[in-house]
Amino acid sequence: MNTNYEILKSKSKTPIWTFSGIAIFTAFIIWGGIISKQKEELNANLILTPQKGDIYEVKLDRRQYTLYKVEKVSGDTVFILFHQYETNKKSGLRGLKNKGDGGFIEEEPLPILKTDLKSMLETREIMDIER
Predict the structure, then answer these.
(1) pLDDT per residue over 105-124, tens digit each?
(2) How wide is the angle at C-alpha 31 spanned by C-alphas 28 and 34, nearest 5°?
(3) d(CA 92, CA 114)
(4) CA 113 to CA 74: how far, in whole Å?
(5) Cα separation of 46 and 56, whole Å?
(6) 74 partner at 20 to 30 Å CA-CA among 12, 30, 51, 83?
(7) H or E element that contains 72
(8) DSSP code of 102?
(9) Tens digit of pLDDT for each residue in 41-86?
(10) What is the mean pLDDT of the chain?
(11) What average pLDDT does range 12-20 have in this prediction?
């Protein structure tokens, strides 16, 4: 009886499609990594060349998020307007963007050096840049 089992086992092969789920999952992981790396490189370039109207998604604290808007650029100094609202979820930033330019405090823009913006991006205080 044991020999019949061994003969049947040796003639049987695992179908290739059995491992297709693992291959698809691996492909998604690799694709996600590539997209993430490209976004990081794009943000690194955008932070070095800020333009009026750029929107920065900013993490203020563990569960505090808001937006900054570039009002003007003068040499190495970038003048930032703050959004008047904050949200406790990253997904809430979409709602802040939907408020338009009226959500930004139009008082005195805060001057920030480009090098400081770059370090904010490197420490992930600035999470994303929209141009």
Answers:
(1) 888 899 999 999 999 999 99
(2) 150
(3) 27
(4) 10
(5) 10
(6) 83
(7) strand 64-74
(8) G
(9) 999 999 999 999 999 999 998 899 999 999 999 999 999 999 999 9
(10) 91
(11) 82
Long-range contacts from 33-40, C-beta under 8 angstroms, 24+ separation: 39/128
DSSP helix/strand/coil, 111: strand
| One-letter amino acid of 118 | K
Question: Where does residue 65 fall: left (phi above 0), alpha (psi -120 to 50 degrees), or beta otherwise?
Answer: beta
Residue of 85, 80, 84 whose CA lies nearest to 108: 80
For residues 89 and 78, the answer to whether their CB atoms sit within 8 Å is no
Structure tokens at 25: 């999952």
Place of tokens 């993490």: 59
